[in-house]
Amino acid sequence: MIITITLNTALDRTLRIEQPLVVGKLNRATSSHLEPGGKGINVSRAIKALGGDSVALGFCAGTNGRIMKDALTSADIHHDFVDLMGQTRVNTQIIDAQGGHTEVNEPGSKLDDADFLRLLDRMDQYLDEGNIFVLAGSCPPEFPMKNYRKLCKTIKKAGCKLIIDAQGEMLLAALEFEPDFIKPNIFELAEAVGEKPSVDPEVVVVSARKMLDMGAKAVCVSISQEGAVLVAKNEPESLYCNCNPKIYDEGAVGTGDAMVGAIANSMHKGLKFDEMARYAVAASRASARIAGTEMATLKKVYEVYETTEVYVL
Predict the structure, then answer these.
(1) Averaged pLDDT, 202-217
(2) Which has fewest Cβ within 10 Å: 84, 168, 201, 307?
(3) Residue 14, domain CATH
């Protein structure tokens, strides 16, 4: 079973405008689309689009929270949220006719210790050895790192697998518990190892291997249109995977979440390392073809899968 955890859930609103966004002026939207969001929830949506199943855990609040749960239920995505006072945040993405993306994300609601303990209680029924947990996205305002560490420790102590998609202090905290997979992009990777970002796979692989030394069992570094680099402690070869020809982003938001969903699905199915690399990059690049945060279906992913190439670094 795959379980995703989203500490800072959201509704994602996508607005489309016909002209480039003009700051300080009236911009009229031609369409508006609202769907469940937050990185862990997006991973659950990706897993569903790929034909898999997961349970989405996290927090929701108010009318927005009910909208989120109803939307997930309609999409046949299982969820088990802790209800809070207040309102689930709304993240807004504005897309213009030229493909420009502007994002405005709300911070989310502060949690108290009782809320966090309720999440731990909710998690308890899913802590079966071999289950895969995906802990993805930002923390709510003023969320203590001791609680983030507690989540990671609880999951690993139960013998479950742990995938982390986080940055900064959260990523470094998770490394203390030897996560089974982490998925930084080149900027998050550079920050973690104290280097400058690079799109050169030969440079990226050196930094990625430093993450193995810091505690990760496997690392997938996304390099936007350039694909991804994957390394693992139990794999002798480092891999670079990309599509030929390259696919450029129509819908940049959610492509990393699609990649994480594919990694989780690959682990659940027991795919080989090189197959996982192709599957993850294909899921990300197929989703990049779709504007907004819609996730690519398995059929669309396999169309891209056939164009992927894997190189040994």
Answers:
(1) 96
(2) 168
(3) 3.40.1190.20
Residue in the block written with tokens 């999440």: 119
**Residue scoring higher pLDDT (98 or 104):** 104
Q: Which two tokens stand for residue 251?
A: 């819908």
- Write the Ramachandran bin of 35: left for phi over 0, alpha for psi from -120 to 50, otherwise beta: beta
> Mind telling me the catalytic residues?
257
pTM value is 0.92
pLDDT at 247 over 70: no
Which residues contact residue 53 at a Cβ distance below 8 angstroms, ignoring those fewer than 6 apart? 1, 2, 47, 78
